[in-house]
Automatic annotation (TrEMBL):
Residues lipid-modified (S-diacylglycerol cysteine): C20
Record's keyword terms, sorted: Lipoprotein, Membrane, Palmitate, Signal
Protein name: Lipoprotein
Pfam families in alphabetical order: Lipoprotein_9
Membrane recorded as keyword: yes
GO CC entries: membrane
Main subcellular location: membrane
Record's keyword annotation contains Chloroplast: no
Superkingdom of source: Bacteria
Organism: Ileibacterium valens
InterPro entries, per the entry: Lipoprotein_NlpA
Length: 289
């Protein structure tokens, strides 16, 4: 089976972003050396992120970055599609919101390959958000009844991941030749409880729970929707998904060796940030090893 996703992603940048400042870490910025000449001036690193938990984690990292000589500036987004293009075009130095299959799908759909100016790569895994099954009415997956409605995300990587979780829970079976990174409801071969699988935008499932028996929700959207206490099942921390879908720091390939980017990853993987994640997000967000 194919290992990585080639999903469909929006190509346009939906939000207008300011260009990197003259003392940004971006390798495209020719005036960075001049800006760094003053010992009193911090080097700016611009990072795009979704608010929960990525933006919160970055906020926690600001002070440590400042102590190391960097001004960490965070641009928060409410949805995924604009964030990668903002790094590709140099508006941002890095982003923190996605897993590797999503990133590889973006590069493929944008026709970027290694060596291209807009090609993005991962420079470090920071945390993992277990996918979960959430319900306002059920306490256990065993309570799901014949004909119940269950929602799954409708974007390529997350729908496949949700369906795989439902398969692991014994609720359905996917075709043996299905690509487990791009599988859809069309790949379901067995559905013993005649479940109605509804495809919805990932960020809308939490709000639709009153009309569903259950929904499979990304960890960040479960937190944003304040439904974490409604989880009735989730991916185990030692699963293949825990390794495949770790959330990463992504940068332009040409920026991978930048000292500011290396420092950002170092800070985000520190014991201090790991403790912050564990204390504030519990099992909804798990620090990467």
């Amino acid at each position: 089976m194919k290992k990585f996703v080639k999903g469909l992603f929006a190509a346009g940048l939906a939000l207008s972003l300011a260009a990197c400042s003259s003392n940004s870490v971006s390798s495209d910025d020719s005036s960075a050396d001049d800006a760094n000449a003053s010992s009193d001036e911090l080097t700016v690193i611009k990072v795009g992120a979704t608010t929960t938990p990525h933006g919160q984690i970055l906020e926690e990292a600001k002070e440590a970055m400042k102590e190391k000589g960097y001004d960490l500036q965070i641009t928060e987004f409410s949805d995924y599609p604009p964030i990668n293009p903002a790094v590709s075009d140099g508006s941002l130095d890095a982003n923190y919101f996605q897993h590797l299959p999503y990133l590889e799908g973006y590069d493929a759909d944008s026709n970027y390959k290694s060596g291209d100016d807009g090609y993005l790569i991962s420079v470090g895994a920071i945390h993992y958000e277990p996918f979960g099954v959430y319900s306002e009415t059920l306490k256990d997956v065993a309570e799901i009844k014949d004909g119940d409605k269950i929602a799954v995300p409708n974007d390529a990587t997350n729908e496949a991941r949700a369906l795989l979780l439902l398969q692991e829970l014994g609720l359905l079976t996917l075709s043996e030749d299905a690509d487990l990174n791009t599988a859809t409801i069309k790949d379901i071969t067995e559905n013993p409880k005649n479940l109605e699988i509804i495809e919805l935008p990932a960020d809308q499932i939490a709000a639709q729970l009153p009309d569903l028996a259950a929904g499979v929700i990304n960890g960040n959207y479960a937190m944003a929707g304040d439904v974490t206490d409604l989880r009735i099942a989730y991916e185990p921390e030692d699963s293949d998904a825990a390794k495949t879908y770790q959330n990463i720091i992504a940068v332009k390939e040409s920026n991978k060796d930048n000292e500011g980017i290396k420092t950002l990853v170092e800070v985000l993987k520190s014991d201090e940030i790991k403790n912050y994640i564990t204390e504030n997000f519990g099992t909804s967000v798990v620090p990467a090893e």
